[in-house]
Amino acid sequence: MKRLLVAVLVMFAAPAFAAHETPASLDAALAQGKREHKPVLIDFQAVWCYSCYYMASHVLNGKEWDDLESKVVFYEADADKPADQAWMKKLNVHFLPTYVAIGPDGEELGRILAERPRDKFYPEVAALLSGDARLSKQKSDAAKGSMAAVADVLDTYQQRYQGNEGMAWFDTLPAMVRNVSDKDKRVALAKQRLLLLQAKDRKDDKGIAEAATRVLAGNIGCERPYVLDDLIGATESQHPDSRQSALAPQRAPYEQFLATQVFTATPACADQRSAVLTAADLDAALGDHAAEQAVLRRAIDLSREKLHGDLKSDRNLADNLRVYLVRAKAGDELDTFEKQLIAAYPDDYVYNYRYGRRLVEGGKPAEGLPYLDAASKKAYGANRFAVATYQVKALRALHRDDEARKRVADTVAAEGKAFPEQTKKLQEALTAAG
């Protein structure tokens, strides 16, 4: 989940994972839900999303999934489609996967961010569908003095990335509720998480660092890597001594987190990738490069052990291994593995694209271009712009300028109207490459 948050979080999405046929559009799904008096469960996901691979392999299957599909209208949102992109913006979805439940009356029932183990996902979905997570109900209970409801409302705003709105709502509560709220640990932590969101919106590194430190002092479970990542980023410009003081106290609790919730036979946290990468980031920020490599090699070895040489057995784990090798700068080991991934998953664009991109970035445009050309035959929508960008870079590096211009023209002609922002960036890439 972690690397989905960076830059391209919601730009590229994917075909369906579920076995059942879904409505042709989200508007059609909502109309069907209203007509059949069923809630709509929307799955925002992507073909490059390793968290989505996890859900597809480990959670969205079996009897529990079949039972759930019988109770809801299920729709998989593809962010490469302009209509679904518009819905992502409308619902303020910033994280993949995100599961949003909407009632037959059109009110959001609640949402689940990121992957979950099976034993957590289905109870959470059941709670959403019961209506207990409906914001209007939570607010009503909060106004009556329920601290649990106050925390639930604040958490709901946090899930919707609405820090300002959440704190503004809190200020409307009766004084008798507000004045005792900080004595409740859940409420106090939820407020700090909204303050962290506000600081991030302002790009206020000092505020981010202060709020993240307070949040990290709480019991935040599997969200620890993401909040620590905020702290690491916010302290990047600090003097080394100040940064050391801010980050060093996080090392012991994070190592405990890894030992008890990640590097175990049955990890409590589904998103092992973010946990490992944040550990490596923390070690690097503290200047301990031996520890940085050690945690990456441990993750690499464990991933290989669990895969038993079968990359199709668990795509999430296989893709995690690829990223660990990238981060460890594993060189020849990574080249071999990426070619194996291309062979294992020949029907989508993503591994040809990633390998071709890495070759171009490494100064090998002639070697990278065939992989990018193969990716372009399978890419669609917004993904086509990502592939075309690196095709242009490779072609210009090879002094094949006419072909580069044609690639831009063809991509814009096919997809430009639906993706104006990507069109502009692709055209800028052509100019920059020159």
Automatic annotation (TrEMBL):
Entry annotated with the keyword Cell division? no
Task: Tell me the leader sequence span.
Answer: 1-18
Q: Which GO terms describe its molecular function?
A: isomerase activity
UniProt key word ATP-binding? no
What InterPro entries has UniProt attached to this entry? Thioredoxin-like_sf, Thioredoxin_domain
Q: Which residues form the Thioredoxin domain?
A: 8-130
Record keywords: Isomerase, Signal
Q: Name one Pfam family in it.
A: Thioredoxin_7
PANTHER family, per database record:
THIOL:DISULFIDE INTERCHANGE PROTEIN DSBD
Q: What is this protein called?
A: Thiol-disulfide isomerase/thioredoxin
Native organism: Luteibacter jiangsuensis
